[in-house]
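To: structure desk
From: M.T.
Subject: fold request, one chain
Message: Could you run this one when you get a chance? Sequence is below, nothing fancy, just the single chain.
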Amino acid sequence: MLTLNSQGKTLSSTKPLIMGILNITPDSFYQKSRVTAVSEAIDLAGHMLADGASIIDIGGQSTRPGAIAISANEELDRIGSIIEAVVKQFPDLFISVDTYFSEVAKQVVKAGTHIINDISGGQYDANMFKSIAALNVPYVVMHVNDFKDEMHTVKNETSIMPVLHDFFTTTCTRANEAGIHQLILDPGFGFSKSPTQNFEIISNLSTLTTFQKPLLIGVSRKSTIYKTLGITAAEALNGTTVLHTAALLHGASILRVHDVKEANEVVTLCSYLQ
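Reply: Done. Structure tokens follow.
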């Protein structure tokens, strides 16, 4: 049973959850996840909700390789009106915001956000852990290199699992000391890792269940899939489905996806295999 509590609401499920991706960016790597207008965001969020998403993850900053970083204020300018509109249109929906800025986290939680999804794992903003504890919302911590300009740098080709175990041991301790009570772990598929290391994560995901925290997996249409297969991100749905299946069978609790309907089908079928 996975249970998340935030802003007076409870999200509880006996099956893994689907988190749909809603990018308010001009340059995220998969075009169909990108919107700019409020009406487009409402339409896409509605489709994802109808297809089985329990959470919508709203992002205002692309973290693809080569993307230009923007400030906290720019990020808020992009996502502020979208969050307000989605909260108003879908009052029962759990909303996540993808940010590594503590100031953004504060403002979006005020606007009705339920989860903060931090791709830096609290490493890019010294105030993030303290802010999350005060906000008392679920917090996704992802593994990545500890310097922002090395987000996509592969520092070595050795086994990644000992690195992940060390990182999450330290992070769980920090979170506990800060007073963060709802931690979600994301091993950071595609960030600071080689393709071999990415596949290693999926194959050995069950070892991270020892932390007794929900595991979020974000493999959807990523380059490890489409470059391995010699195709494009637009053609990578089948490969994504294969890795989603493996992740679920190895302990994933939340799938962060572009294609909600197909991911929900994977969750349903995998429930008969466990």
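Reply (cont.): The chain has a mean pLDDT of 92. Let me know if you need anything else for the meeting.
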